[in-house]
Amino acid sequence: MEYDLTLRDKSRSMQAIASASILSGALCLSMSAIMVKLAAVDSATTAMLRCAIAVLILAPLAWAEGVKRGRLSTSGAGWAIAAGIALGIDYAAWTAAIYQVGAGISTVLINVQVIVLPLLAFLVDRERIKKRFLMILPLMMLGISLVGGLWESSAASRSALTGTLLGLCAGLGYGVYLFLTRRATGKDSARIIQSLAWATASAAVATTVISLFSGGLNLAGISAQSWMLMVALSVLGQVIAWLLINYGSNRITSTSTASLLLIQPVLALGLAAAILSERPTPVQLVGAGIVVASVAISNVPYNLRGRRHLPDST
User: For residue 23, what are the CA distances in angstroms to 17, 30, 129, 292, 296?
Assistant: First the structure.
């Protein structure tokens, strides 16, 4: 009995660390839309630079990790490259959606990942979807829609069909990236830097190719301040954010990962108020509260009857 309790305590501790890692990564990601808006660089160039600059940072870190812990397996690199293609689609579509329908609505649309990731894990890996997650999912989506301002007339007037489709495409790419990354690091969990480096390099190539169909890249005329913001976006929104998220995602279920990442738009709301003086409306504040509550209910380590249980394994 004492041995079982020790295992339970250790498991709960690992789950808590993994959840904290994902939430920290979500905090870094939540600053992305703000930095994109402040930089005022066109969407295609922003998407490419975000990845290209990050590769320069990740390459020496990945080499050092390879020397210390061994090289990433061929299959792991393959999954990471595939994940990077999905991430490139996500970035290209999401950045364009920001300029079409605004940061709020684009953030709402991209969070269809909360459905895509668990669904892929269920269909491909046969990972069980918790009933509690399915029960709370409508509440999560309601909260996200309120945070994004979908129910307010000013936001609805900007929700053009093009921006909506771009946002949904970004959300699909986001969910596929998360799923493929879990596969890339599943057997190489000690080599997440190498995995992220491959994925980021792949995303840089993907965004460059996509840019050929949307007017190309425009590197001329970028101000020094915009370059600094691009570097900050790469460091926070790509390197640090995804290292934290990939570390945590590999240690908890797909449903927990997907729901924890829903905190991102709530954090973005608070940061926009603090940095850009964009004050949230009462409706957005209600939505933020709903999101926080639903994520907590979905991930609390107790069942509805109050008995402790071990979280589902991934």
Answer: 10, 10, 21, 12, 12
Q: 286-301 burial, b if ≥16 CB within 10 A, otherwise e?
A: ebbebbeebbebbbee
Tokens of 56: 């320069």
Polymer length of the chain: 314
pLDDT of residue 6: 66
Q: Mark out the alpha helices in 187-219 (DSSP H runs).
A: 192-211
Q: Which helix (H) or strand (E) holds 103?
A: helix 74-110
Read off the tokens for 166: 């771009």
Q: Do 198 and 80 form a contact (C-beta atoms < 8 A)?
A: yes
| H and E: helices and strands count for the chain | 14, 0
Q: How far apart are CA 261 and CA 245, in angstroms?
A: 9
Nearest CA-CA partner of 184 in 205, 200, 172: 200
**What is the per-residue pLDDT across 211-246, written as a single tens digit (0 to 9) for each?**
998 778 888 889 999 999 999 999 999 999 999 999
**Residues 138, 76: contact at Cβ < 8 Å?**
no
Q: What is the chain's alpha carbon radius of gyration, rounded to the nearest angstrom?
A: 19
